[in-house]
Specification:
The structure holds two protein chains of two kinds.
Chain A (H helix, E strand, L loop, with lengths): L16 H6 L4 H11 L5 H10 L2 H4 L27 E6 L2 E9 L1 H6 L1 H17 L4 E11 L5 H21 L3 E8 L8 E11 L14 E6 L9 H4 L20 H18 L3 E6 L4 H13 L2 E5 L12 H6 L5 E6 L4 H10 L4 E8 L3 E6 L2 E7 H4 L13 H7 L14 H9 L8 H4 L10 E3 L6 E4 L6 E7 L2 H6 L1 H18 L3 E10 L6 H21 L3 E7 L3 E2 L2 E2 L3 E10 L16 E6 L13 H7 L10 H16 L5 E4 L4 H13 L3 E3 L7 H6 L5 E6 L9 E7 L3 E4 L2 E4 H16 L3
Parallel strand pairs in A: 3-4, 8-11, 16-17, 23-26
Antiparallel strand pairs in A: 1-2, 2-5, 3-5, 6-9, 6-10, 7-9, 8-10, 11-12, 13-14, 14-15, 15-20, 16-20, 18-19, 21-24, 21-25, 22-24, 23-25, 26-27
Helix pairs in contact in A: 6-7, 6-9, 7-9, 15-24, 18-19, 18-21, 22-24
Chain B lengths: L1 E6 L6 H10 L3 E6 L10 E4 L20 H10 L4 E4 L1 H8 L6 E3 L7 E9 L15 E8 L3 E3 L2 H9 L3 E5 L11 E5 L5 E4 L16 H12 L1
Parallel strand pairs in B: 1-2, 1-3, 3-4, 4-11
Antiparallel strand pairs in B: 5-8, 6-7, 6-9, 9-10, 10-11
Classes of the chains: A alpha+beta, B alpha/beta.
Chain lengths: 741, 220
């Protein structure tokens, strides 16, 4: 055993149970840390180890599973987990950079600031790479909105996302809003950011060689957010509200200046810098230690040089503060003054707080006193766990339910069933949400929120980018593997409906406490499912985040892996939308046919609303999904599609209604519906999409013609209603639930 | 024409305005708020955004920027000054336009396409429009409710200084549906909607070009 010399001026910490609980380190993990150090850690060292070994920073339960993911590809420029975000070559000398991250726990306690700082954090991850953020997406989950607590969370989170994102001038172009019982008290708030950069102006989050100066820039450091990474790594309970000091307060105005200054600095003076890193969870500790790890060096931080907004802060507090809007720049010594002057132009203060050393030790000095001196390799090598995995028997039993034992929908009840689905918050128009977000600033939003995926142009390039998020939690709960495959397939379908070829994935794994076998089983199976699907679509996982311990007193959340998908459209002028266009256009169902087995009702919104059950098998056919995506892209590139929309929540009838509502024009389906009515109308069999074409087009090779665009009614089998009635149900559902709350 | 597009800390429609003007063949340069002179420019744009994070009040801090005294002098020459969104708020705070912009009546931020009626087509900012033409321009603001004393509103109406009104829905509760007003001389216009977001057919509309074209026709 090697012994790391202890810091010169600090005694070993007294590791009481209370101290360990505060940093969420188990007694065994503490013993391991002592063994790795060859001694007991000091106070500051223990705090740093606790933060870096937290689930949030250290991925103790998820990292051992990441090897399943495909991560390489011809166009992939980064390695999963090695940078702040993943980078993809999109051609024309340009690179897309993207990542999704959770801010679930803070949003549960303080929805506005929790969501706002979630946006702030993900945006910093993107510009830390030197990329200009060009789009945000938000994947949200709340408990039922008839409960005022959930309404308060939903309204607050939406306001927080808008409050921060709108001020930054980055358009919020997409995302999801899903309501489910299990999210009561533990909402999910996942924010995704997409950026672009010229290929030669990407920058790494590395510390550089010994002698490099570490500068902090942006906000002064306060006590806010202390132990935030730890807080994100435990379950929520009654005392969680007392953790409110662990929720940070955002200053989007400062972030906007910081973003403009950093992006400009990397574009114009890349040579002044060795690296750039944001101060996220675990603050200066994680940013500087992780930079040193990438460079294979040590660091020396002088806490008294860190600009503060509060007096009397201890070195421990300075090292672990999660004050927002701070960046660490690793600067070549001869350019320190240049960098300081650059930031001063932006009315920002940059200060040298330490330097890179060659000894592999993370040292912290408080004036003359050395209070931490632990090897970087100890801090960045948390233990990893592979707990027992066991299928949850209750979800297995529900998945085995056979929907064909239910009575079929009576034709006379079909209109009502469609209206009921259209006004379900999971299906209804999300305009109430996205009209509170600036989704147009930057003047690149070609396809705005409300279609399958958003499409962005890049000035000077012919190609465009399509982005979306998908996380079908209910399906994952019933069948973690198949549900996760569906998450990827739906996301791929969504970008393909705009004409984009899916190219890469970022993922946010929202699960409950992985120490329980049923939850670990969900995590393990979901990761394998996503990995297999990503391999089939040729979409490597380039970045992501795991958020575990999502539980409240009411129990665990539905396992919700959220997939953020990026696609490339070869000609952005040809982007396809979901809205029907012209009277007389023909409507085709691509992929599987009109007639559907009762099994397709498994896990469907229809089963939930009409029969009050989340049950049945989750069926996926990956080959068929890949074929459909290829077909959609080929048709779009040939200019054959006037509209395209995938069939997902609510099945064929909802998909058709949405195309009609969006286009303001009705449709008549003349194809006969055979077999079970509920399955044909509302079954959620995958690998299907609705497209409309000019009358002359022939798509019989890959689909069936089912009807014609026109008129002001929706006519589909026994369904016959005015378009206005469907539109009203779809448009008014969320305002009715949320306005005035 | 050669336009100055003013950039305050927190401004974000600056590039969008530059692109819209350049696409129409004009020269447009971003000018940092610490500049003391606007000599050499034929027109000035105050773009949207959240200058100084809307701290204190929208536009209340930006009005103290060094470039604002230069803007006073520039406006006095009769050359065009156009502010949209936060630019409108700054012009009101600086006293170049009457009234103030309050929080939207809905108390929510609104980003959506909006119909506007052109009240006069015989002004420097609307000469390329037809009388009573309805334009569709996006809005994006949380504080766009135009407010002024009734006597001020009467004066504006009487002098024909209300150039645009919301048509159909009034998205923010603005008094008398006012969406855009000018100064007495008619060379300073402020409006909440964003013409630079409706200047490219790929993004779904080009009605904003009517305003740019009017300015170019009138003042070049």
């Amino acid at each position: 055993m090697t012994i790391s010399p202890p810091p010169a001026d600090a005694a070993p910490a007294v590791a009481t149970d209370e101290v360990l609980a505060q940093i969420a380190l188990s007694r065994e993990e503490y013993a391991l840390a002592c063994e790795m150090l060859g001694r007991a850690p000091s106070d500051v060292e223990l705090g740093m180890i606790g933060a870096l070994w937290s689930e949030h920073c250290g991925y103790k339960h998820s990292r051992p599973l990441f090897h399943h993911f495909p991560t390489d590809g011809e166009h992939i420029l980064t390695r999963l987990g090695e940078e702040n975000a993943g980078a993809i070559d999109i051609g024309g000398g340009m690179v897309a950079v993207m990542k999704i991250e959770s801010h679930n726990h803070p949003s549960a306690i303080e929805p506005y600031e929790g969501a706002a700082t979630g946006v702030g954090g993900i945006v910093r991850d993107i510009f830390a790479m030197g990329a200009q953020p060009i789009a945000l997406l938000d994947s949200l989950r709340f408990g039922p909105l008839d409960d005022p607590r959930n309404r308060r969370l939903c309204v607050g989170v939406v306001e927080g996302i808008g409050g921060y994102g709108n001020c930054l001038g980055i358009p919020t172009v997409g995302g999801e809003l899903v309501i489910g019982e299990s999210y009561s008290g533990n909402p999910l708030v996942n924010a995704m950011c997409l950026g672009i950069a010229p290929r030669d102006s990407l920058i790494s989050a590395t510390a550089g060689p010994p002698g490099t100066q570490l500068m902090i820039v942006g906000a002064d450091t306060g006590r806010d957010g202390l132990h935030g990474a730890t807080f994100a790594s435990v379950e929520l309970d009654e005392s969680s509200a007392e953790r409110r000091p662990a929720v940070q307060v955002g200053n989007p105005f400062l972030e906007k200046s910081l973003m403009d200054a950093c992006v400009g600095l990397v574009r114009e003076h890349r040579e002044w810098l060795e690296g750039l890193q944001d101060c996220g969870a675990a603050g200066i500790t994680s940013s500087t230690v992780e930079m040193a790890e990438r460079a294979g060096t040590g660091i020396r931080i002088q806490t008294q040089r860190v600009p503060r907004r509060e007096s009397g802060m201890s070195p421990y507090e300075v090292m672990l503060s999660e004050s927002q809007e701070r960046m660490i720049a690793a600067v070549k010594p001869q350019h320190v003054d240049d960098v300081r002057a650059w930031f001063e132009h932006w009315e920002l203060h940059a200060e040298v707080i330490g330097e890179v050393t060659g000894d592999g030790i993370a040292r912290v000095l408080d004036g003359e006193r050395e209070v931490a001196a632990a090897p970087v390799s100890v801090m960045t090598n948390p233990p990893s766990y592979t707990p027992d995995a066991k299928r949850d028997p209750s979800s297995a039993a529900r998945a085995a339910f056979d929907p064909s034992t239910l009575p079929d929908l009576a034709p006379a009840a079909a209109n009502d069933a469609l209206l009921r689905l259209l006004s379900s918050p999971n299906i209804a128009s999300k305009r109430w949400v996205y009209r509170q977000y600036d989704h147009m600033v930057g003047t690149n939003t070609v396809v705005a929120p409300g279609s399958d995926a958003a499409v962005l142009r890049i000035r000077g390039l012919q190609q465009g980018l399509a982005v979306c998020t998908d996380g079908p939690g209910r399906a994952v709960e019933l069948d973690p593997y198949a549900g996760a495959v569906r998450a990827v397939a739906e996301a791929a379908r969504n970008v393909a409906c705009t004409g984009a070829r899916p190219v890469a994935v970022t993922d946010c794994l929202n699960f409950a406490n992985p120490e329980r076998p049923a939850i670990y089983h969900q995590l393990q199976e979901s990761i394998t499912g996503m990995a297999d699907a990503c391999r089939a679509f040729g979409t490597p996982v380039v970045s992501g985040n795991a958020s575990l311990y999502n539980e409240s007193e009411d129990g665990p959340v539905t396992p919700t892996p959220v997939v953020g998908m990026l696609g490339i459209i070869s000609d952005v002028q040809q982007a396809v939308r979901m809205a029907f266009q012209d009277e007389g256009d023909e409507v085709w169902l691509l992929g599987a046919g009109l007639e559907q087995d009762a099994l397709s009702l498994g896990g469907s919104e229809y089963l939930q609303l009409q029969h009050g059950m989340s049950a049945g098998p989750i069926d996926v056919n990956l080959d068929a999904e890949v074929q459909l995506v290829n077909a959609l892209v080929a048709l779009a590139e040939a200019g054959a599609l006037k509209s395209a929309h995938d069939c997902s929540d609510g099945g064929l009838a909802v998909a058709l209604a949405e195309c009609a509502i969006a286009g303001g024009v009705g449709l008549t389906v003349d194809a006969e519906i055979k077999g079970r009515l509920d399955a044909a109308l509302f079954g959620e069999a995958g690998a299907r999409a609705i497209v409309s074409t000019q009358p002359s087009a022939d798509l019989t090779r890959i689909g069936v013609k089912i009807g014609t665009v026109g008129g002001d009614r929706i006519q589909l089998g026994p369904i016959d209603m005015p378009l206005a009635e469907a539109s009203e149900a779809w448009e008014s559902a969320l305002p009715n639930l949320l306005d005035g709350s | 024409m050669r336009f100055a597009v003013l950039v305050f800390p927190g401004t974000w429609s600056d590039w969008d305005c530059v692109h819209a003007l350049e696409d129409l063949g004009q020269a447009a340069e971003r000018v940092w708020h610490r500049e003391g002179s606007l000599d050499g420019y034929d027109g000035v744009i105050l773009p949207g955004g959240f200058s100084y994070g809307d701290h204190l009040r929208c536009g209340a801090i930006a009005r103290f920027s060094p470039v604002m005294s230069a803007l006073d002098r520039f406006a006095a020459t009769g050359k065009p000054v156009f502010g949209s969104c936060n630019g409108f708020q700054i012009l009101c705070e600086a006293g170049l336009l009457p009234g103030v912009l309050l929080r939207n009546a809905s108390l929510q931020f609104r980003c959506q396409p909006q119909l506007l009626r052109v009240e006069r087509s015989d002004t420097g900012f609307t000469s390329a429009c037809t009388p009573s033409q309805v334009l569709q321009l996006p809005i994006s603001h949380g504080e766009g409710q135009y407010f002024a004393e009734p006597s001020v509103l009467d004066e504006l109406e009487d002098a024909g200084r209300v150039l645009f009104r919301y048509h159909g829905e009034n998205p923010n509760g603005s008094l008398r549906d006012i969406a855009g007003v000018t100064n007495a001389a008619g060379n300073v216009l402020g409006m909440m909607p964003h013409p630079e977001r409706a200047s490219d057919a790929l993004l779904g509309g080009i009605d904003g070009n009517h305003i740019w074209r009017s300015m170019i026709e009138t003042w070049s």
